Structures are given as structure tokens and as C-alpha cells.
Amino acid sequence: MAIDIKREEQNTGKVEQRVVYESGNEMAAYAAHQINYHIMGYFPISPSTEVAQFLDLMKANGQHDVVLIPADGEHGSAGVCYGASAAGGRVFNATSANGYLYMIEQMPVQSGTRFPMVMNLVCRSVSGPLDIHGDHSDLYYALNTGWPIVMCRDPQAVYDMNIIALKLAEDPEVRLPVLVASDGYFTSHQKRRVMTFAHRQDVLNFVGAKPPGGYPDVLDRNNPITVGPYMNEPDYINNCYQQSMAMYRAEDVYERIRKEYAELTGRDYPILDLYRMEDAEVAVFLMNSASEIIKDVVDQLRAQGIKAGSIAPNMIRPFPQKQIAEALKKVKAVTVGDRADSYGGHGGNMVNEIKAALFTQGNRDTLVISRVYGLGGKDFYAEDGHNLFKFAIEAAEKGYVEKPFDYYGHTPGDPAKAPKRVLNPMKYEDLKTGLITVTPDTASGKLNVRIPPLRSLTKKPKRIAPGHGACPGCGIFSGLELFFKGIEGDIVTLFHTGCAMVVTTGYPYSAHKATYIHNLFQNGAATLSGTVEMFWERKRRGELDHLNLPDDFTFVMVTGDGGMDIGMGPAIGAALRNHKMIILEYDNEGYMNTGAQLSYSTPIGHRTSTSNVGKKQAGKLFHHKDTAQIMAATNIPYVFTGSESYPQDLVKKAAKAQWYAQNEGLVYGKILITCPLNWLSDDKEGTDIVDAAVNSNFFPLYEVERGITNITYNPEEKNKSVAVAEWLGTMGKTKHMTKPENAEALADFEQEVARRWNRLKAKHENPYL
Questions:
Q1: Domain span including residue 510
Q2: Cα–Cα distance between 408 and 387 in angstroms, integer?
Q3: Would the CA dihedral through 219, 220, 225, 227 be positive or negative?
Q4: Does 33 lie in the same domain as 72?
Q5: SS (H, E, C) 100-127
Q6: In whole angstroms, how far apart are CA 607 and each of 2, 62, 679, 680, 702?
Q7: pLDDT band (50, 70, 90) for residue 241
Q8: Share of the chain above pLDDT 90, in %
């Protein structure tokens, strides 16, 4: 890990400190490892994912005792954290953007029941459309969840605030979970010089060696408690009042803690960071990373004789109303920059809270200008700071605000440059070739499929155009196109977030030649269910007659990159409702689109960025999820597995999938695809690797047709069996498993592969299993 580089020793404040050169994510992880939390429940999402990655790497090397629990989604990770905090230990988490929104139901539960923890919100744009860069649109959703919120303008602040936040959360006068907010990619990934405590014991001396006693603990058998009871109105309002009072007390407690911290370290974080505000006549209010840039602008304006100043909060919950009113009492005009909009609210959350603060404190004179800026990670430069000051200077000179609210940095669309269609729609007659025939066999209850030689299917147009941005050797698109060769006629596809989605839809271009929808990991199956049912209902009502649509529309949801973890619940729901659609999972054995973290499809022992290999850990610690068998248990008409290394088998199964999806209900398919970048394999060897996976029985090829299992390729019968260890040796991510010190883990994996294969053979031989 980068933070284990040689450090320069240095003394500042009362404790020994040392200098590191690291990013915000690394410093969040470093603070967490020094605190040595009990539990971290997490789920990967950019740009916060690195926090768990760095902690896992340190865990593999034995540097801390934090138990990292990979959840099935952010909602699950929040539940893990809630349960762990109710059990009396110290709890940590990190998330971003839509991941935070997915867990937001749990945020008031945690604060309303007064269980402390610390969570890093690495701020990022909330989709849709999808953007993974930094702004504050997720942060503004946090304002009403009952969590105190501290702000981090740089990696140094991320480190310091993570330590301060725990002490604040556990203080008896507060006892609330605390959110530590930093800017995605601006702060999370940019490396800066940071001072840290040289010794863990000094950190523990500050925050306390263990959580303070005196509050409920579900593990105290001598004092059983009920957590989160049902409350009627009088009790509920009293509970909320007590929580509200705790929030306001957090301001005074924070002031005390930050002074203690300043005395120890020499670094101070007053609630408001005021820069040259003592006699300022114009000011700009910004948060986090942009607030550092604006200080240079203040100096430049001061050199021109303009009395400029800047305000940046180190805490926004509780909102520092009195301090802001005091700082602005002599200011003629202030421009408030919000890195998110409160749509329809005539400004972002911060400007409206500042206006309320001024009004409440009796200031009717300071003019306030609202500008929404920097959305989607749009860079903020000194020239932008000058423009924000320009708005305030003009208002001060005129005595009024000409345009109270607007966006800054947006560009008007040019009708002459509107995106034009690059690819013409595919012709139905080119897609409906008639080369593939599917007929029901009334005697067996199965389908008979005839496919021509694959070379004759090459004339079918590709559903996804060349030109996408996938990594060299990526198996997603070869696998998808092979599957689509077996699909006749028109399709509508929905893609979960993931590599296949991200690399094919960089606005204003799209590689998709068929109609395409995107929704997030957790909700794709439900979304496509709605599309399917709307198609059939509008068709029934005659509302689509003018489009001359064929009756053989096929609806396909493409998922992968762990989408069958966070999206498993809605997929099962869609299966139980039996919508006429196909769910196709490309299995690359991890969350590859966020940097190769472990997913539940990652096999035991495999190395990922959150299942590292070190002296204390050798890859993933639990077995992979068998999604095909899970979906088969829902009794849908057809389930299959496939691989591009056996193309005829996959095309035939695609044709069957289409027939069942058009005639009977939901189909689930799973294809193993290679990911050379994260499997640490040569990009030319992908087909050979997935072939070895099939022949080792790790990824057997079979189908479950109307409840009856049929193995479609048996390597034992073909004399092509490959040892599991031989397959593992083809990838850099698994070569460690073949070493003598990992013999026990390898044996465990081999036994599980054999157990699943033998169970599958038993089902193949007995139609009642």
C-alpha cells in the first residue's frame, strides 16, 4: 500500500507526527486503521471504493483488526453497520452518490436510534444520466438525515476529520452517527502532503481506547433492550426533539473537540474557515476543494484594492447559522456557490440556508447571489472564482441583485450541433433471417432447435457497433454478440450499470444499434419488467398499431460486474412474476467497472482489490454464488449457462431463450466472460481460459428447461477434463492458490467445485431433482 512508504519524521503540536504524501481515500483508510474499528460494512462504488480497498490491503498484511464485510449492496452495507453499532462496537463505512441514496432509508434509522458510527461520503454526482465525477448532489440529500456533517477540503482534513468525527459521534452529549464529506476525485484521488499521528496509541488516547460505556448495547444480556420500537405520536415527537437537541449540542461539542485536536496537532478546524473576512465588503461562500482555490482569488483582488474575503464551512450540520450571520454582517454582497441544485427551490441548499440565517439574525442588508456550479465534476479554476466575485462586486455597486439565481459554467445548446444519427436503424428483414428454427416437442416437453453453421450467421448485423471503449481482450462483447446471433428479430435491451454500459454510451455517442435503456445495478429487472408490461398493454389497446411492430419483440436485460448481487432481489421478483423477458448475466467474477473488487460471483481464494493476498490473507474468504441455480429455484421456464468457447451451444441456448421469453415467461442466462485487466491474464488467452473453466467443471454448461436439468457439455465424456489447479494457473489473480502454503484453500475450492458438479450430474440423471 502506498501509505507504507518511507516517511519523514516531524514534530508539530504535542504529539509526534510524520509526513506522508497521499490521497483523501488513503487518508480515510489510514485513520480508520489507526482507530482499529471493529466492523466496516461496505459495497464498492466510485469514487469511495478505494477506502475499502486500502483497508483490505492493510488487513492482508496484518496491520489492523477491522472486520470488512462485503454487503450485497449499499442498503445492505448500511444494515450491517446499523446492526454492528447496535452491538456496541466501533463502525465505519464509505460510499458515494447513488450508493448513498440507496442506503438513505437507513440513515434516519441509525440517527433516530442514536447509535454512533463514522461514514465517509466521497461526494459524487447523482444520476441520471450517469456521471461518476464530483459534486455535492449526494451530500445535499444527507442534510435531513439527522447526522452531523463535517467537511474536508483536502486529504489532510480527511485524515483529521475522520479522527475528530469518531470522538464527536461517541460523545455522551451527542451520540449520533457522523458523516465526513470530501470531494470525489478532487480530494479522494489527488495526493497531497499530510501530517499524521506517528503512533496509533496517540490516536486512541485522543478518541478513547474503546467506545465509552453508558449507552444501550444489544449484547448486554443483563439489560435486554428493544431497539427501534413502534412509537405513537406523543412519543415519536419527543424522540425527534431529543435527537434535535443532540444535533445542536454537537456544535458546542465539536468546538471543544477541535480545540483539543488543535492543541495536540497544531491543526485547527473552526466551524467556519474565514479568509480575510475581517473587513471584507464582498465575499464568496464555497465548500470543500473549491474553497482553497478561492483564497488565491481573494489575494489577487486584495492586491487590486478590493476588500474581498471567503467563507468555507468545516461543519454544515448543525448549520452554523449565527457564525455565518456574524461573518457577513459588514459584507455588502456575497455569492454563494452550490455544487448541487435544489430543483425548484430558487437556489441550492446552502444559499437558501444562508438567506435564512441572515433573515433570522436580522441582517436585511447583505445581498445574496446564488450560483450553481461545478456539476458532474466540472473543474473550478481561479478565473471561475473571479467571475463569482464579479457577481458580488456588481451587486454591491448597484445596490441590488440583477439575477438572484442562475447556473454558472453551463453552455447553451447549439441547434446546428445537435447530435445526428450516425448508424441507421437495423432492418427487420436482416435480423429475422429464418436460419434458426425453434419448435416445441410435445412428447418431451422440450424445444427442438436447429441452427445453421455459424459462418452463415455472420451476415446478421451486430447489435452493438464497433468503437466502444472496452479494454483489449474484454470478453463482454464477443460473448454478447455470440448470444445475439441466436436472437431473431427486434430487441429492446436494458443494461445495468457496469463495464458493458459505461464503455458503449459515452454521450453524445452510443454503440447500441437497438433501443437501449440504462438503470442502476439494483433496479434493472424491475425497470425492464415495467417496459415489458407497458409494451403488451399498449399493444392490447391498439396504441402501437401505427408503428407496425412485429409480435416477436424480445426484451433483454444485460447485467454483470456484480449486478446479480445488488440486483438479485429485483431479479427474483421479476422471475416470480414471470415477465416475458431475458436476464443475461455476463460473469467476469467481480465488480470490474469500479476496479475489480470482490463480488459474490468471485470464487474463493481469488485475488481482487478487496480480497488481497498477503501474509495474513490469501484472497476471497468465501465461496461464489451460484446465480443460475438460485434463479432456477424460482421455477421460471428456462435457465442456462454458456461460454463463447462453445459457440454452437450458446447460440442454440439463445434461440431457446428467445422462444421461452416470447411464449412463456422469464429466462435467465449466465455466460462466463474473461477480464484480462483484472484477471491478470494475456488478452489473447481469454477463450482458452474460459474453456479451461468449463473443462475443470468450475463453470459447467447446462440448461434447466421447465424444471428439468440437462448438462449440454460433459468434459468427462469428451475426455477433456482439466484439473482445477491447472485452470487457476492460467490467471495471475489465482496463481497464489497453487502454492504450498495455500493448499488447504485450494482443496476447499476443489471440493466445492466437485460437490456442485456431482449435484448437477445427479439432477441431470433424475428429472425430479
A1: 470-765
A2: 9
A3: negative
A4: yes
A5: HHHHCCHHHHHHHCCCCCEEEEEECCCC
A6: 18, 16, 9, 10, 27
A7: very high
A8: 84
Q: What's the pLDDT at 11?
A: 53
Terminal-to-terminal C-alpha distance of the chain? 49
Q: Tell me the CATH number at 670.
A: 3.40.50.970
Show the cell assigned to 379. 473543474
pLDDT tens string 603-641: 999 999 999 999 999 999 999 999 999 999 999 999 999
**pLDDT classification of 695: cutoffs 50, 70, 90:** very high
Cβ(204)–Cβ(211) under 8 Å?
no
Quote the radius of gyration of the chain (alpha carbons, Å): 29
Task: With respect to residue 732, please indicate whether it lies within any of the assigned structural domains.
Answer: yes
| 463 domain-assigned | no
Q: Which amino acid is at 355?
A: K
242 with 276, same domain: the answer is: no
Task: Tell me whether residue 670 is in a domain.
Answer: yes
Give the pLDDT confidence score for residue 285 in this predicted structure. 98
CA distances from 759 to 260, 561, 631, 672 (A): 62, 27, 16, 20
- Reported as a single tens digit per residue, the pLDDT across 21-45 is 999 999 999 999 999 999 999 999 9
Q: Among candidates 108, 109, 104, 77, which has minimal Cα distance to 93? A: 77
Q: Which grid coordinates are listed for 163?
A: 479522527
Q: With left for phi above 0 and alpha for psi between -120 and 50, is residue 696 left, alpha or beta?
A: alpha
Q: Is 704 within 8 Å of 445 (Cβ atoms)? A: no
Task: Look up residue 689 and give its amino acid.
Answer: I
Q: Is 478 helix (H, G, I), strand (E, B) or coil?
A: helix
Q: From CA 516, how far away is CA 544, in angstroms rounded?
A: 19
Distance CA 521, CA 559 (A): 8
Q: How many domains does the chain have?
A: 3
Q: Where are the beta strands (DSSP E) in 314-421?
A: 315-317, 333-338, 367-372, 405-407
Rounded Cα distance, 569 and 584, in Å: 15
260 and 343 both lie in a single domain = no
Average pLDDT in the chain: 94
Does residue 437 belong to any structural domain of this protein? Answer: no
CATH number of the domain residue 293 falls in: 3.40.50.920
pLDDT band at 7 (very low <50, low <70, confident <90, very high): very low
In a shared domain, residues 164 and 241? yes
Residue after which a domain boundary falls, among 385, 407, 429: 407
pTM of the prediction? 0.93
From the list 512, 448, 446, the residue with the least C-alpha distance to 477 is 512
* 65 and 38 within one domain: yes
Same domain, 207 and 356: no
Whether 554 and 634 share a structural domain:
yes
Sign of the alpha-carbon dihedral angle for 711, 712, 713, 718? positive
Residues in the chain: 769
Query: Which of 69, 71, 40, 68 lies closest to 562, judged by CA?
Result: 71
